[in-house]
Amino acid sequence: MTQPAVIRRAFGPRPPLPDHLRTAMSLASNGVPVLPLRRGKVPFGNCPACVGNACGGRPNMKTPGPCRCPGVCHAWAAATTDPSVIASPPWAAAWRRAVCVGYHPGGAGLTVVDLDNADAIAWARTALPGTRIVPTTRGEHWIYRGAMPSVNAVRPGVDIKSTMAYARYLGPGTGTMAELPDAVRALAVKEPSPVRPAAHAAAVPAGSGDGECPHRTPAYLDRGIAMAEQRITEASSAVHATVYRTFLAVLSRHGRCGCLTDTHVARLFTAAQSKGETARHCADAWTNARTTLGL
Asked: Which of the pair, 192 or 252, is modelled with greater confidence?
């Protein structure tokens, strides 16, 4: 069924198609997952069948789990590019009540650096490479090509919105979109809150970190990071413990010679967050592992 036919079936020829739905359809056709946002610029809440996690999925802003609810029920996890879903009857009422269009940046392979005030904008102009800029009510969205973990308050007035998050669509913006730089990735892991090592931390040998680097070829390190990502994503239980033990193993092998970069750390954090871990949990586990190994 074509997009116009789907729209006519959901809304009929009258009243006119909501402007927000037109925008959503245009974004979806370009591979950007969309969702309607209600008053307060927040997602629509869980339906009665999904409230309180009754559906077996997870509440808004978490991993969707097995829920197959056809409604706009799980915030960023409900975002889609499927026109038959976007214009379906379960979504129709939401689009009529929507105040704006939201999208899932990570689902489109994007990262939004949300600058909330003039001071944050001034910082970005000196610290970050130029990219596509979209004006907001109080500041600017700087949009980069590439996904990473989402983190709020990485510095005063600055949030990062990418995977497991949504952003408001406020227009196409201006400027050429740049690749996601390490300077932005580093914000997700910079200066984590110090915590005590976990009492149940597993003991992992520190390895031969002192002295000559044991992995001079990038392929060796990349293979190790890929294996660590796989270990985390394949965990079916005890995710917290698996993440910590994996971080500990990576640091014991690669943490002393200076080869690990912010990009490697971001890959591990992304794998952990795909299993439902928060950015703070990731930072704490990383700090615990570093403390355990004396790094």
From this structure: 252
